């Protein structure tokens, strides 16, 4: 056929079957490009929404590398005449991107210090050997730690602790399936819940703070965010632990021997080294910087100061940071934030917000509740298929253009993006526990949907009964 | 020659590993045994690698290492490799890419044996491994998924041996599907090697849709008869008419190992209308080797 060998045709067929989402994105974008812009939407806004659609399809389908999606977004913003090259470059790099970059680098530095063995000892001292107490301890410690140092850092440190307990209980995965599931989900869900607690818990919090400030809707400091979000985190800890216990009640109610073996293993690590103490000291300095200096320096610059200190004191090599930092994700978040800003500036965000409210007004009468519900529910669903930071980067401008109290809607959206309980791809922590090979994809839904519904309900109560007193 | 044996778990991949290694021994081939773990989302690659590297500090193995350990123990027990130690030393696994690591062992009854750990979509990973290592035969357990079987036969650029419903205790015969397709001669050569190694009787069957057999079918059948006679293999040659897949199913039942050449149809035609080898892999309840 046309002089092509069978091998070439087979390769082409293979490419087509694997890249169907790329082809779909291309076809849909051409279709959308040639349909007339709606009256209330500017041509630039129309073209911005086309980029959003393409980006969402390519990110969810993962048909091309994430950096390629990021680059495509930037190219299309210029080619479609949405902004000048310099304008796109300016919107691409922001304090939120610095923060994401800094926190990913700090994660590598912190994990490599071997502090997880101290952490294990601390948890076991607190919880003892009863399984329910260990589950509660895992959820609580994961939540509280990840509210400050980022969820995947904590998950990477907690995973070996859980696996050591599991393998010391039994080598047969079938015997310990429920125990494995409950311990690993205690980490994943604990980390996800904790990431709402402070701005530094997740890049998406910083993205939302950046949007609120950039769009002139207000300023939220580190401590103010804690006042809004931490009560929800503290309420969720016992709820999540109880829910996991009821869903995956394990056969082993006491982990006496496993705990003893874990203690023996971690005590071999000896006393805390100078480097470990220095690593903790630097993190405390960074935390204080976030609390007291971020209004002047920005959260991102403070995180980068932390990275600078870790590198300068020789606590981590650049080679290790370079190898273990997801540069593709950083590029993508930069591009997604740039796209969010273009959505706001071209009126695309406002148009989507108006259309959503008009559409939902047939079902819900209360405008305030409708705004809240659209923000939270849509974010909650999308975050389970997309990265949570990308979800906030794309939906943030829409939510903030809906009207109502932008602080309440903005923080609600950011918190809802942590409800990544339903799928493996929902967040790096879900992926990390899945990579152990001990949890099945169906397990995510078993407890996840209950926690998802309860979290939305809890957020509704808190945002309506508690937050109005803070404003 | 180089064989690739894909294993999935200790519970289900025993027959695949056993039959695969026996066939590799028959061909005196080098063997790679590969475990393909779940795909890691691009959003989480670095984070998962960081977590897995941290597991090593705790002397804990990542997913899939236990399967390689099991394969290693099988190789030692059956003297396929020169034993350095009865325990699989995970430190010897060398990370060659973000989603691939490997260790090579000295073979005794085969050439070199490699143990490989990969992560990702299985067809993509097998395709990459076949291209990277110049694999001649890929051996994999039977999958219930129609799509998976289709993709294996269609997109993997090596001969495919689908090990379905293999039981060592069963007395197998070799069923050779013979027709005028160019790959039939290569299939016959492979079939003879397998028959000699396993001491199997061979049934060389030529199937026609109609009662009348085309001359090129008859020529192929005669050539097969001569070839098998010269090779000294106990065999019978049969000409049967009927629908190809029905005859193969009825003849093979669950006590034959099927060997046949790959279809020469264009990949596009095969994609839309299927092919005889694809039908065999999907419908027959016994191991089938599709020679490309």
Q: How would you explain this protein's 3D organization?
A:
The complex is a heterodimer of chains A (471) and B (292). Chain A is mainly alpha-helical. Chain A contains 24 helices and no strands. Chain A has one domain. In chain A, 76% of the residues lie in helices and 0% in strands. In chain A, helix 9 runs antiparallel to helix 10, helix 14 runs antiparallel to helix 15 and helix 18 crosses helix 20. The N and C termini of chain A lie far apart (70 Å). Chain B has 292 residues and is an alpha/beta fold. Chain B folds into 2 domains: 162 residues, HUPs (Rossmann fold); 115 residues, Rossmann fold (3-Layer(aba) Sandwich). Chain B contains 10 helices and 12 strands. Chain B has a 12-stranded mixed beta sheet, with helices on both faces. In chain B, helix 6 runs parallel beside helix 7. The longest helix of chain B has 17 residues. The chains are: A mainly alpha (471), B alpha/beta (292). The interface between A and B is large, with 44 and 34 residues.
User: Beta-sheet strand percentage of chain B?
Assistant: 15-25%
How many β-strands of chain A, per DSSP? 0
- Number-wise, the strands of chain B total 12
| Count of helical stretches of chain A | 24
**Oligomeric status of the shown chains?**
heterodimer
End-to-end C-alpha gap of chain A: 70 Å
Proper CATH architecture of the largest domain in chain B: 3-Layer(aba) Sandwich
Q: CATH homologous superfamily of the largest domain in chain B - what is it? A: HUPs
Structural class of the secondary elements of chain B? Answer: alpha/beta
The CATH class label of the largest domain in chain B is Alpha Beta
Provide the low-confidence segments of chain A as ranges.
Answer: none
How many separate domains make up the residues of chain A?
Answer: 1
**Taking Cα atoms only, what radius of gyration of chain A do you get, to the nearest Å?**
23 Å
Shape of chain A: globular
**Largest interface pair:** A-B, 44 and 34 residues
């Amino acid at each position: 056929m046309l002089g092509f060998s069978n091998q070439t045709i087979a390769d082409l067929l293979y490419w087509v079957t694997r890249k169907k989402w790329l082809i779909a994105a291309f076809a849909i974008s051409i279709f959308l490009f040639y349909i007339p812009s709606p009256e209330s939407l500017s041509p630039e806004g129309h073209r911005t929404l086309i980029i959003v659609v393409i980006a969402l399809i390519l990110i969810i389908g993962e048909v091309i590398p994430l950096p390629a999606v990021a680059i495509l977004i930037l190219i299309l913003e210029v080619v479609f005449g949405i902004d000048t090259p310099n304008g796109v470059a300016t919107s691409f790099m922001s304090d939120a991107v610095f923060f994401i970059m800094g926190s990913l680098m700090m994660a590598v530095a912190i994990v490599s210090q071997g502090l997880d063995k101290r952490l294990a000892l601390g948890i076991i001292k607190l919880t003892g050997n009863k399984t329910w107490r260990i589950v509660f301890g895992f959820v609580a410690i994961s939540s509280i730690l990840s509210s400050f140092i980022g969820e995947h850092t904590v998950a990477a440190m907690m995973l070996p602790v859980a696996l050591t307990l599991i393998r010391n209980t039994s080598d047969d995965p079938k015997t310990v399936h429920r125990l494995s599931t409950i311990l690993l989900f205690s980490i994943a869900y604990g980390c996800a819940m904790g990431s709402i607690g402070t701005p530094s818990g997740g890049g998406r919090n910083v993205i939302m703070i950046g949007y609120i400030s950039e769009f002139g809707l207000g300023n939220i400091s580190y401590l103010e965010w804690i006042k809004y979000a931490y009560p929800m985190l503290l309420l969720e800890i016992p709820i999540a632990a109880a829910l996991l216990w009821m869903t995956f009640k394990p056969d082993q109610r006491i982990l006496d021997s496993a705990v003893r073996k874990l203690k023996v293993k971690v005590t071999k690590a000896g006393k805390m080294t100078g480097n470990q103490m220095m690593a903790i000291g630097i993190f405390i300095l960074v935390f204080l910087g976030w609390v007291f200096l971020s209004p002047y320096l920005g959260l991102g610059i403070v995180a980068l100061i932390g990275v600078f200190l870790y590198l300068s004191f020789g606590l981590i090599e650049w080679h290790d940071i370079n190898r273990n930092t997801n540069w593709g994700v950083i590029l993508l978040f930069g591009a997604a934030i740039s796209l969010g800003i273009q959505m706001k500036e071209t009126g695309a965000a406002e148009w989507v917000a108006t259309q959503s409210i008009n559409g939902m007004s047939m079902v819900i009468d209360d405008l305030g509740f409708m705004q809240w519900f659209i923000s939270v529910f849509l974010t909650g669903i999308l975050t389970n298929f997309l990265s949570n930071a990308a979800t906030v980067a794309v939906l943030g401008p829409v939510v903030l253009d809906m009207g109502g109290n932008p602080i309440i809607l903005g923080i609600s959206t950011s918190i809802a993006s942590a409800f990544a309980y339903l799928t493996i791809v929902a967040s790096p922590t879900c992926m990390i526990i899945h990579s152990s090979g001990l949890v099945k994809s169906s397990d995510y839904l078993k407890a996840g949907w209950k926690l998802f519904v309860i979290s939305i309900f809890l957020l509704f109560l808190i945002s309506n009964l508690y937050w109005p007193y803070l404003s | 020659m180089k064989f690739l044996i894909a294993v999935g778990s200790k519970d289900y991949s025993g027959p695949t590993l056993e039959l695969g290694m026996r066939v590799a021994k028959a061909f005196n081939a080098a063997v790679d045994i590969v475990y393909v773990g779940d795909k890691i989302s691009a959003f989480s690659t670095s984070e998962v690698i960081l977590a897995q590297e941290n597991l090593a500090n705790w002397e804990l193995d990542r997913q899939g290492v236990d399967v390689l350990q099991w394969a290693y123990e099988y190789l030692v027990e059956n003297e396929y490799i020169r034993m350095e130690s009865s325990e699989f030393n995970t430190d010897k696994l060398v990370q060659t890419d973000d989603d691939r690591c490997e260790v090579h062992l000295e073979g005794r009854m085969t050439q070199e044996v490699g143990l490989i750990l990969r992560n990702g979509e299985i067809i993509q990973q097998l395709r990459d491994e076949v291209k990277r290592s110049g694999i001649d035969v890929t051996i994999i357990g039977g999958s219930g998924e129609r799509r998976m079987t289709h993709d294996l036969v269609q997109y993997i650029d090596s001969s495919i041996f689908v090990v379905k419903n293999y039981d060592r205790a069963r007395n197998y015969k070799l069923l050779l599907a013979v027709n005028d397709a160019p790959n039939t001669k290569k299939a016959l050569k492979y079939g003879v090697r397998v028959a000699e190694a396993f001491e199997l009787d061979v049934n060389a069957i030529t199937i026609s849709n109609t009662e009348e057999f085309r001359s090129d079918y008859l020529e192929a059948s005669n050539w097969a008869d001569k070839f098998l006679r010269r090779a000294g293999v106990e065999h019978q040659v049969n000409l049967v008419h009927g629908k190809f897949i029905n005859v193969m199913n009825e003849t093979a039942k669950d006590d034959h190992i099927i060997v046949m050449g790959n279809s020469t149809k264009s990949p596009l035609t095969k994609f839309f209308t299927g092919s005889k080898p694809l039908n065999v892999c999907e419908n027959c309840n016994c191991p089938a080797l599709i020679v490309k």
